[in-house]
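# step 3/5: fold
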Amino acid sequence: MLKKRCSLISICILLIILNFYCLSFAQILPFNNPNIEIAFTEENFPQTLHTIMTGKESTPTLTYRLPVNYDPSVKYPLLVYVPGFDGGLKGNIKNAQTIADTNNWIVATVPLFKKTIDRDEPGGGIIISMEDFPVISKCYRIMFEKLFEIVPNIDYNKSTMVGFSNGAITLAVLLTMHDKFIIDHFNKFCLVDHGMFHLTDLHKQGSRNCQYLILIGDKQDLGRDLKIRQSKLLQDEMKLLGVNLTYEIMKDTGHEFNEKEMILVRKWIQNCQ
């Protein structure tokens, strides 16, 4: 009888340990789930901005990550992170994962593209502009079409794009130029500390049904006051036109996008749903 009781106690203890282990494992799994890369090696595919700026060859690549509990029969929203500066080699999937912070999203990142650069322009020509729209639109359409073919169970009605700095300008260019493919497949857009000077005409059909957030840091640097004033003006203008656009000040933040700022984006996305 004593042996049976001891065995029963041992089993209970073992189950408790296993349960604790499984919970801990589940918490770290989202960050250990493998990245999946889609490389675009076609000869006529444009070079990334990173390659143009640095001269270092890199293959244009979309990187994505599925939830650990991924179920092909379930629809998941997609969160895409569009990086700043020159976009790096392959974007930044870690930032996409940090913003989502949940197993209920498919996350992805893309590099940046630019038609041409003029080294005499500010930033040595790195800043995205309206003239770059054709190449950006073409590249992202091809990249996302491939992703949607591989992962067909994406919920477009809840999908989000987040851009920082040059990535925010990229989003603003796509939206202002009324890129139908982007607007049809995403309905929330967050622009972090840039893009407010390039964003307009959101009252157009399609664009007006989306939701927008502009985040601006409050630490003084070049053009900081202008960024804040332009963002407030945009909010007031779009409210007049019935467009859901808000701006928010990031306290004690400059031209940066760290985890505490990403949490602001995450909360906004959650409140939108």
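# step 4/5: annotate
The longest strand covers residues 211-217.
# step 5/5: archive (pending)
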